[in-house]
Design a protein that fits this description.
The protein is an alpha/beta fold and about 850 residues long. The protein has 28 helices and 29 strands. Strands 6-5-14-16 form a four-stranded antiparallel beta sheet. A hairpin with a 5-residue loop joins strand 18 (about 415-420) and strand 19. Helix 1 packs across helix 23 (about 700-710) and helix 26 runs antiparallel to helix 28. It is globular. The model has no long low-confidence stretch (mean pLDDT about 90).
Length: about 850
């Protein structure tokens, strides 16, 4: 069958992927006796679109999964989709508002959730098709959604278990409150944006001391109505005498104490700090230490409440700020305002300013759970790559705070807590079980009891933290399944370095807690044997990609332009352990050229009438060139194997690229044109097929298509298993011949002889006929009997005793060569003078100095070559 003129990736990629999916090439087999590998896909948001970070992550994970399948292993790459509580609810709310002119409150909880599920079933999860577009082949038959009923059941059981163990509790705490979304959000979902704001200075009157004041500075004057103390450092010599006195809060008249607390820095500002425990995280801690009242002066929509003076009630807190300043000026208590560098917290989703708010929320006591996770890493039960990420992991867990897991949303896992009329809480998997608890608690019949379920849902990351085991069939303490027994702990997690806090640490805590003593071995509780954290994908200038900045790059557009194979190979080549990527479209274009090179090489082999021969025995080849390419194939595949095994994706692509382009295409194919034999043709076809296997994990589409077009064989390349290479042809001399060819080409260039012109050489060693023909053809030379010429040029080759023959037809301008040498020597001498000048070395930019040193070394080599040439020519 004839190979098409070119690889039309835009038309062929979908057809090829449909074949893979129809054939279930990504399917795992829990009954298989093969060695198993389990990879967990970080579940993308149901509202999400593929970005370059996703593209890189799914590319390298799919490369690893295909590589493991090629080893004959049973691979479970577990796919999933996250319900993305805040993002999904926000999007559907906007959709309903635009289409129906209604809010979720107009619809009510039940109807609103119907709308969300309708959207999810019709439009949600488009990102999964975008992942397919990239060529990623997880086990789609096992696709899980974080709100699937079996997962939801496991989530409820986890909540109940942690609650019964005293690790989940409800309490009033200060949280990040998103005014726009009307929900608590975690510290990790808050973006602090640097800005220049204002620091306002006010005088607070000392109670009972007419005309005496203490000066404070604040960036949020509107919170003064919630002040419950003024803090001064106990060793503050300037104003320490005021400790123990009180101030009268302006406009409110409430008397509050001046307390001693080390939080107040005597060297910063006025040395006195207003303490507003209900509206500042640091103040909250000061308040707890000093048993201060916590007065919330803000409603959940950001407006001021009735704890403020009447004229401020109902006013937005930002609108109230200038009025507070105006009132303080009128009272003669305003001192000054100064520019102040500060960070303003914004909600990651809403993009609105987040307020510290005192609310009642559900929390997990994570400090206790963190200890086992850290021990697992320290003891080597799980490996983190790159190694330095361990520092990030330990820093987070050593300083971890209680995790606020409740969200004031409707979309998500509703908290399994039910309340009686007196507020007593019953935690149970469903209302029936809660009612049984209530009957026992109240001593009443079920008909006499009315329960109401908690309105809040769990933080999205709560269910994601259980992902490594709930996706494998775990459904409660002590439960198991065939998948869990075979695939847990999972083999490898590949995810972004930015998810160490959000996801990885929490999965470690949940896994080590709920699967302790799994299979009778506590070390089996860790969710992953190994974790690889890749860097971030930035724009070509190293800046973080952002829609608002206009520097975002759509990977779908890159695939439309260059094909998925080129993009995958680029992402793998750019993935070094721990480093970020500066996206280079030029390099992607280069790898598209690589795809074209592979295609054209296969077309040439077809034109050579070299076709697949199942009887070909690579162990029996006799020609040196064929032995050489088989040995290079063996070495290159071993290098790719080791690199992928060690998750050195960039090294794996380098090894594959160098062999295919530089050795196979640039050398072996050219050698195959010289006196082609049946053996050389069969070797061409054999190595081509092995190259398709080798490149398949990286470039699955083009290799699959070529696999089908180069022969009439059954089965998909994606299902092929790599065979072992046992030959040893390391004694071949083709590498030395290649070096000699390159030397002859260099000498011709140095002498100013056309590359296509033939020259004579003398070579002492006897070469195999085909090898000699390769040398003469590719070097454009004629080999003469050694010692037959009078005027020769020594060629410094460590293997062959060889000389270049300076025939009369080689016309060399000796005088010009001497002038060139003098010019080079003058430049070398001048460079050495600069390098010996301390002032020059000290003041010149480092990059300039390095460039000059590189140029200096190159010129020294050129000069030496010229000296040898001039001496030879006499």
């Amino acid at each position: 069958m004839a190979i098409d003129k070119s690889f039309d990736f835009n038309n062929l990629e979908k057809q090829i992927y449909d074949k893979w999916e129809k054939s279930h090439v990504g399917a795992s087999d829990v009954k298989s006796k093969k060695d198993s590998v389990c990879l967990i896909m970080p579940p993308p948001n149901v509202t999400g679109n593929l970005h370059c970070g996703h593209a890189m992550e799914h590319s390298i994970t799919d490369i690893y999964a295909r590589f493991c399948r090629a080893q004959g292993k049973d691979v479970l790459w577990q796919p999933g989709l996250d319900h993305a509580g805040i993002a999904t609810q926000l999007m559907v709310e906007r959709k309903i508002s635009a289409e129906q002119g209604k809010s979720r409150y107009d619809l009510g909880r039940e109807k609103f959730l119907e709308e969300v599920w309708k959207w999810k079933n019709e439009s949600g999860g488009e990102i999964l098709n975008q992942i397919r577009r990239l060529g990623a082949c997880p086990d789609w038959d096992r696709l899980k959604f974080t709100l699937d009923e079996d997962v939801s059941s496991a989530v409820r059981k986890v909540f109940i278990s942690l609650y019964n163990d005293g690790l989940i509790f409800k309490g009033q705490r200060l949280v990040n409150w998103d005014i726009a979304l009307q929900t608590a959000v975690s510290d990790l979902e808050v973006e602090n944006k640097e800005t220049v704001g204002k620091m306002y200075y006010f005088n607070y009157p000392i109670d009972g001391k007419e005309g005496e004041f203490i000066q404070i500075g604040t960036t949020r004057p509107e919170t003064m109505f919630g002040d419950t103390a003024i803090a001064v450092h106990p060793e503050n010599e300037k104003i320490g005498h005021l400790i123990g006195k009180s101030v009268k809060l302006p406009m409110i008249g409430r008397v509050i104490p001046i307390i001693a607390d080390e939080y107040a820095d005597p060297e910063k500002g006025t040395g006195a700090v207003k303490i507003t425990p209900a509206h500042d995280f640091n103040d909250f801690e000061v308040g707890k230490r000093n048993s201060l009242a916590m007065i919330s002066i803000m409603n959940k929509d950001g407006s001021l409440n009735d704890k403020c003076p009447e004229e401020f009630v109902g006013m937005d807190r930002l609108e109230a700020r200038p009025l507070v300043i105006k009132k303080m000026e009128a009272l003669g208590l305003f001192v000054k305002a100064e520019d102040n560098n500060m960070a303003i917290p914004y909600g990651e989703r809403s993009k609105e300013i987040v307020e510290p708010m005192l609310t009642e929320q559900w929390f997990i006591d994570t400090k206790k759970m963190a200890e086992r996770s850290m021990a697992a890493v320290k003891d080597g039960e799980t490996e983190i790559l790159p190694k330095f990420v361990e520092n990030t992991f330990f820093h987070f867990l050593n300083n971890i705070q209680d995790w606020c897991i409740s969200r004031q949303l409707w979309w998500g896992h509703r908290i399994p807590a039910f309340y009686g009329e007196d507020g007593h809480c019953f935690v149970a998997e469903n209302e029936e079980e809660a009612l049984e608890q209530a009957v026992r608690h109240y001593g009443k019949s079920a008909d006499e009891i009315e329960l109401k379920q908690d309105n809040d849902v769990l933080d999205t990351w709560f269910s994601s933290a259980l992902w490594p085991f709930t996706t494998l069939g775990w459904n409660g303490v002590g439960s198991t399944s065939e998948e869990l027994e075979k695939y847990y702990p999972t083999s490898l997690l590949i995810t972004g370095r930015d998810l160490v806090f959000f996801w990885y640490s929490r999965m470690m805590m949940m896994g080590t807690h709920f699967l302790k003593d799994f299979k009778g071995d506590d070390k089996k509780s860790v969710p992953f044997e190994k974790c690889f954290f890749h860097g971030l994908v930035n724009d070509e200038h190293g800046k973080k990609m952002s829609k608002s900045k206009g520097n975002g790059v759509d990977p779908i557009e890159l695939m439309d332009k260059y094909g998925a194979d080129a993009c995958r190979f680029y992402f793998a080549s750019a993935t070094t352990q721990g480093n970020d990527i500066n996206l280079s479209e030029k390099q992607i274009e280069g790898y598209r050229n690589f795809v074209t090179k592979i295609w054209n090489a296969c077309k040439f082999i077809e034109m050579q009438c070299a076709s697949y021969d199942e009887t070909f025995d690579p162990f029996k080849v006799s020609e040196e060139r064929n032995k050489w390419v088989l040995e290079r194939l063996k070495t290159s595949r071993a290098n790719v194997y080791r690199a992928l095994k060690d998750l050195r994706f960039n090294d794996a692509t380098s090894a594959a690229y160098d062999f295919v382009w530089k050795e196979f295409c640039d050398w072996f194919i050219e050698m195959g044109k010289v006196n082609p034999s049946d053996e050389s043709k069969a070797t061409l076809a054999f190595v081509r097929d092995e190259i398709l296997k080798l490149l398949h994990p990286f470039m699955p589409f083009v290799t699959e298509e070529l696999w089908g077009q180069t022969s009439d064989r059954d089965g998909l390349l994606a299902s092929e298993v790599w065979k072992l290479y046992g030959w040893d042809f390391s004694d071949t001399n083709i590498d030395d011949i290649i070096e000699l060819i390159q030397q002859i080409r260099t000498i011709k260039a140095d002498l100013g002889i056309s590359a296509s012109a033939f020259i004579d050489i003398e070579i002492k060693e006897k070469l195999e006929n085909n090898t000699l023909a390769i040398l003469e053809t590719l070097a454009r030379c004629k080999a003469l009997e050694f010692g037959s010429s009078e005027k020769t040029l020594y060629i410094a080759n460590p293997t062959f005793n060889v000389k270049g023959v300076l025939n009369d037809n080689i016309d060399i301008d000796i005088e010009k060569k001497k002038k060139d040498l003098a010019k080079l020597e003058g430049g070398i001498k001048a460079a050495e003078g600069r390098f010996n000048n301390e002032n020059f070395v000290k003041n010149v930019p480092e990059n300039v100095l390095m460039e000059q040193k590189i140029s200096y070394e190159k010129n020294k080599i050129k000069a030496e070559k010229l000296r040898v040439l001039i001496e030879t020519l006499g």
